[in-house]
From TrEMBL:
It is found in: Membrane. GO terms for cellular component: membrane. SUPFAM superfamilies: MFS general substrate transporter (SSF103473). Keywords: Membrane, Transmembrane, Transmembrane helix. This is Nodulin-like domain-containing protein. It comes from Urochloa decumbens.
């Protein structure tokens, strides 16, 4: 069982790595939206699979487990023959923004639809036919983005010679402009950095033209995501870099706090009087989804339009989480809904912003290794916040309440029959004190994480300014 749990828990790592690395290489000029959309659909899978399970409602659990075990492998094998890395300069199109907005619209529509389905199924007993119809509509929404590649296939292709001529002329002009900037960082590319041996034997005019063409290739390579001199770190090089550890610690404090809330959401809702935590679990999955989409979109606006570090968006997300955790601690009426929304939104934003930022600051060549090292922050944060802080404080408050009830029962034995806290089984804690201290503690840690993100912003703002100014021009 230990081996099965290990494999089952870590299977998503392989899918996340393959999809993120491939798509960042294909869309280096749209890293935020790309990562946000991929991670968003990954975060929504629990709600989608729950709906599929509601349609199957089969007592044969072995069949369901077999489908879950074999299905992902079949999908991966099938995609092996379809998905391939394509240079970013070949993928970039003027219509990309419109297509991203279309996918964003599908994401928002899908999230809204799932919220409605969850609420309806929670309060109304639906027939099997209605549940099947709702699931069919869900599948239609899921596959609707396929109209984008279909449109590319059916639309006439532009004339490549004209494109190449215009591109070459534009890039040579840009290369000459960049050459005059003294503060422009040096671009290092193994494919064009070697100076041809015959260039010195050419006439002066031809030699300058040849050099301009090589510089144009450098600019073109940078546009498709090739790194500058501060990029393409190996994992070992990243591990001795201060910025990398600041990002990791910020992720640990923010994502760890969010994961602790998700792990204990059932007990938190029951402690403040909700009998069924199902609705909060489902809503948190959807807010997590929206946080990933919104985090990628917002961070892309920040780096594209303002050439400012992507981590400023993470600072905003961690501040929202701190506010949500503070509301959990206060336990005012309605704060479970607002707190769940803020924490789910902020937690999801981490997984859209951090991978995109790491690929920009440390390169895409070893991005898979660095991304998976960063994900260690998630279980580490869960161990610290959920396993040590939240659980211990909850058990302490539960024991204290049980002790008070025992004293009351001795003074009035008839109360013994009305106290579930004295029944056999694990102790239960009721009331706002159960998560008051732990929620306030995690709120403070989220503020500390936001402070670390601001330090990353300060340390990398010059890098972002140089990198995105060179690309945008």
């Amino acid at each position: 069982m230990c081996v099965l749990l290990f494999v089952g828990t870590n299977y998503s790592t392989y899918f996340n790595t393959a999809s993120l690395v491939t798509c960042i290489q294909n869309f280096p000029k749209s890293r935020g939206p790309t990562v946000g959309i991929l991670k968003a659909f990954s975060g929504l899978t629990s709600a989608i699979l729950t709906q599929i399970y509601a349609v199957m409602h089969t007592p044969d659990h072995a069949t369901l487990i077999f489908m879950v075990a074999v299905g992902p492998a079949l999908v991966a094998i099938g995609l092996m023959f379809v998905i391939r890395p394509v240079g970013g300069h070949e993928q970039a199109r003027p219509s990309d923004n419109n297509y991203f907005m279309f996918i964003y619209s599908i994401c928002l529509l899908l999230a809204s639809y799932l919220v409605g389905v969850v609420l309806v199924q929670d309060f109304v007993q639906l027939s099997d036919r209605v549940v099947v119809l709702l699931t069919v509509i869900l599948f239609i929404l899921l596959v609707s983005p396929i109209v984008i590649p279909v449109t590319f296939i059916l639309s006439p292709k532009p004339e490549h010679p004209v494109e190449e001529a215009l591109l070459s002329e534009t890039l040579i002009t840009e290369a000459n402009t960049l050459q005059d900037k003294e503060d422009q960082p040096k671009v290092i590319l193994s494919e064009v950095e070697e100076k041809p041996e015959d260039i010195d034997s050419l006439p002066a005019s031809d030699s300058r033209k040849r050099i301009a063409e090589l510089q144009a290739k450098l600019v073109q390579a940078a546009a498709r995501g090739k790194p500058h001199q501060w990029e393409n770190f190996t994992l070992m090089q990243a591990l001795v870099n201060t910025d990398f550890w600041l990002i990791w610690l910020s992720l640990l404090l923010g994502a760890g706090s969010g994961l602790a809330v998700i792990d204990n959401l059932g007990q938190m809702s029951q402690a403040v009087g909700f009998k069924d935590a199902h609705i909060f679990v489902s809503l948190t999955s959807i807010w997590n989804f929206l946080g990933r989409v919104g985090g990628g979109y917002l961070s892309e606006i920040i780096v594209r339009e303002h050439t400012y570090p992507r981590h400023i968006a993470l600072t905003i997300a961690q501040t929202l989480m701190a506010a949500g955790l503070f509301l959990f601690a206060m336990a005012w009426p309605g704060t479970m809904y607002i707190g769940t929304f803020l924490v789910g939104l902020g937690y999801g934003a981490h997984w859209a912003i951090v991978p995109a930022a790491v690929s920009e600051l440390f390169g895409v060549k070893h991005f898979g290794a660095m991304y998976n090292f960063l994900t260690i922050a998630n279980p580490t944060g869960s161990l610290i916040f959920s396993g040590l802080i939240v659980s211990n404080i909850y058990d302490y408050e539960a024991e204290k309440q049980a002790h008070r009830h025992q004293i009351s029962a001795l003074l009035s034995p008839q109360l013994l029959h009305n106290r579930s806290l004295l029944a056999d089984g694990p102790l239960k804690c009721e009331g706002p004190p159960c998560f008051f201290v732990s929620s306030l503690t995690m709120s403070v840690f989220c503020i500390m994480g936001a402070g670390l993100s601001l330090i990353v912003v300060h340390r990398t703002k010059r890098v972002y300014a140089q990198f995105y100014q060179s690309i945008n021009t």
